[in-house]
From TrEMBL:
MacB-like periplasmic core domain location: 20-237, 431-632
The ABC3 transporter permease C-terminal domain, residue ranges: 287-402, 669-782
Any GO molecular function: transmembrane transporter activity
Chief location bin: membrane
Name of the featured protein: FtsX-like permease family protein
Stored Pfam families: FtsX, MacB_PCD
Signal peptide start and end residues: none
Superkingdom, natural source: Bacteria
Residue ranges of the TM segments: 21-41, 281-303, 336-355, 375-398, 419-443, 666-688, 718-737, 749-770
Protein species of origin: Spirosoma aureum
Amino acid sequence: MIRNYFKIAWRNLIRNKAFSVINISGLTLGMASSLLIFLWIQDELSIGTQYENSADLYRIMENEIADGRIVTDEDTPGILADELKKQFPEVVYAAGFSSPEQHVLTVGEKATRQTGHFVGSDWLTMYSIPLVAGTYANALNSPNSLAISRKIAEIYFGNPQAALGKSIRFDSWNDYQVTAVFDNLPASSPDKYDFLLNWQKYLKREPWLDQWENAGPGTRLQLRPDANPAVVDAKLKTFLKGRNKDIGPNFNIQLFLQPESEAYLYSNFKNGHRDGGRIEYVRLFVIVAVFLLFIACINFMNLATARSVKRAREVGVRKVVGAKRASLMGQFMGEAMLLTTLALGLAIGLVALVLPVFNQLTDKHLILPFNQPLLWIGLPVLLVVTGALAGSYPALFLSSLKPVLVLKGTLRLGAGAQLFRRGLVVFQFVLSMLLIIGTVVIYRQLHYIQTKNLGYDRENLIRIQGEGEIAQKFQLFKQELLQKPGIQSVSHIQTSPLQNGNTTDGVNWVGKDPTSAIQFNNTWVGYDFAKTMKVNIIRGRDFSPSFGTDSSNYLINQAAAKRIGYKDPIGQPLSFGQKPGTIVGLIEDFHFNSLHNPIRPLIIRLAETWNHDNILIRTKPGQTEQALASVEKLCHRLNPKFPFAYSFVDSDFATLYKSETVVGTLATVFAFLAIFIACLGLFGLAAFTTEQRTKEIGVRKVLGASVYSIATLLSKDFLKLVLVAIVTASPIAWYVMNQWLQNFAYKITISWWVFVLAGFLAIGIALLTVSFQSIKAALMNPVKSLRSE
């Protein structure tokens, strides 16, 4: 019998080619989109969980409570890891780590720029990183030890075994010995590095880290499997009291644990508590995947029902000769499963085809994991769920038809059935409208971010690392560069202009409450900073070589002036740490961190003779290429041991919002797919309606109705459904997108015209879809539709 079901299903599939193609296309697109989203979500959820000891790995986070605010970050004292191992019996391993940075590694004449950082000796063991050469005991066990990835070993030495014991020069100032080679980190690893250096070396290089009052690096640890994280968390809360002398009634630092498995997805904190992160995007795309699958299944229901008149006599004859309702339901469910199986096969092929493009778009390395049981469990589940959703209503509806009415030709569908199908179309367009409005809002927010005035000009601004001999010869570098064509100005800054996380409460001024602990961001810069950044100086001046005392003077931004309380800050005293000075310039607020955060008070110091992290070069408009050639040539001459590398500040800015840009692009693609699939469903309902009203249309034409009036008559019913969807979806979309915008300190307002635009777009697309069937019905010869009368 089952064989007979599929034989009949196949014949119906071939006989009704147009409906079959539309059905299979909708299901294929819905399932392919869901598969892509599933692969993306699986990868997101796996990040941070791939380690052997993932369940016992934690990051130490820090809540700074001061000035009525709670700021959460991963900065901790540099000596915290060793102390935790001594004081906490629950801790198996602990390791401090610096932020990953690019450095130049040199062997002989070969020099390349690689990413790495300093870590504690427990790091490799704690994260169960496979070693392909060397041992965990010897890796990172001495100040000059160096662990490198397989990739670096092959670049410099040909293979991992040959690298052991060899020397690599680090930034041309120190030689390290390769003591271990670890396997290349997987693409899903939240940490990105290719070499690791000894932590004690870092503490000697940065002696300020040896004090509890200073924080900068991070700390991670592994607890015993039987340890209670809540108990450790409670002890960490007061751990720094008595150690950090700055902690007092108005300033406090509380440490707490964050599971490593949650750190990637839950990276945002508000008022000291977890407040989302990338998990919001995961949840969003789970909903999108469900939406697309529902829309595709609704298409099948509508199209199958539209064909019910053609299948009605078949049902009637089968029932007359003794077919039970269960067997008829099995027949129609079998047809649904056959179509769904074909669609699933096409969906897998489509996913394999578009996966390279999808990976490029999302910066992932996704593959179809045919070797994983989860896929072979997931595909049948997807098949059964989709087939059941798509085929359930048509099977119930068609199997319920009464043979007497069918065979007499008096079949009329009840109001309930019509209302249900129209409700499905409304539901489709509600989902589609949500995606359209969401896409418009995301696009407008991204456009706002990309075009917002940051308080400085990021165009024609180049950033290079002040490394090697350039840091020591900066004045010569600057003087020679200013003589080159295309160069407008040159300066330097401690941190990237877009990411300044340096904070201090060691700022004092006349009239300050001595018990308060107010956090200020701070950085050091060189001469011509304001000119190079094109930062607006509201009052006062920039640092200048004409004033020998500027080494102890300060620039402040408007937020700092407001917090300090000086009516006119120029010439007023200010001290940073133990260094008293004078405010010589008030600069307009500019963004030195993500637009997710408000502008905070900023203190700027002069440090022209220090080693610099970032050199800023302003080029003349239209002469950037010429200027870059001059910069590269001069860098090769003054700093020959370092490969030339640069970045544009506007490109760095775009990188900050890459996640939002990817989400915006994906939302656009999936919104288009949702509309396209929904239009297939609308096409199905239009086909069904015209079939039901064939004789009515014939009578109207005989009585003189025009093509336009008939097309309008058929179309207006569908427009009503779309209008209901617009009214239903708009408040839901406003609420959801307004919640998403709360993640930005600087954001757009959702204007009324967004909903109008989305509505007109939905109406226009619906009209185009329906008009095909309406005009086709209006042009039909009434003789054919009325001849049975």
